[in-house]
């Protein structure tokens, strides 16, 4: 993710801080936008608010209801984090 941002002239100009689990970009209004990655677990995204989210490689998520991290629960956890921001931008990708 960091390499992609650094190779884009527009995003590189907005790049603030680069951390181990994410990076900070400045939006057009000068506010910080944190871009983070989370492991694919039910509890990883809890207690965070999201303006937008992307679930990558969903075809490999565990869909079994008896598993520790079923796909529907991961999606529900992310959607809960989007409620407070009025977020309706959820990208679900599978190859």
Order of helices and strands: HHEEEEHE
Radius of gyration: 15 Å
**What is the total domain count?**
2
Shape verdict: globular
**DSSP strand (E) fraction?**
15-25%
Count of DSSP-assigned helices: 3
Overall pLDDT confidence:
84
Q: State the end-to-end CA separation.
A: 18 Å
The low-confidence parts are: none
Strand segment count: 5
Helical residue percent? Answer: 25-40%
Order of adjacent strands in the largest pleated sheet = 1-2-3
Based on secondary structure, the structural category is alpha+beta
The major sheet is characterized as: 3 strands, antiparallel
Description:
- With 95 residues, this protein is of the alpha+beta class.
- It folds into two domains: 36 residues, no CATH class; 58 residues, no CATH class.
- The protein is built from three helices and five strands.
- The strands form two sheets. It has a three-stranded antiparallel β-sheet with strand order 1-2-3. The protein has a two-stranded parallel sheet with strand order 4-5.
- Strand 2 and strand 3 form a beta hairpin.
- The longest helix has 13 residues.
- The protein is globular and about 45 Å long.
- The two termini are 18 Å apart.
Descriptive tags:
single chain, 95 residues, alpha+beta, 2 domains, two-stranded parallel sheet, 3 helices, 5 strands, globular
Summarize the structure.
It is globular and about 45 Å long.
Q: Layout of helices and strands, plus pairs?
A:
Elements: H1 2-7, H2 9-14, E1 15-18, E2 22-26, E3 32-36, E4 52-55, H3 71-83, E5 89-92
Parallel strand pairs: 4-5
Antiparallel strand pairs: 1-2, 2-3
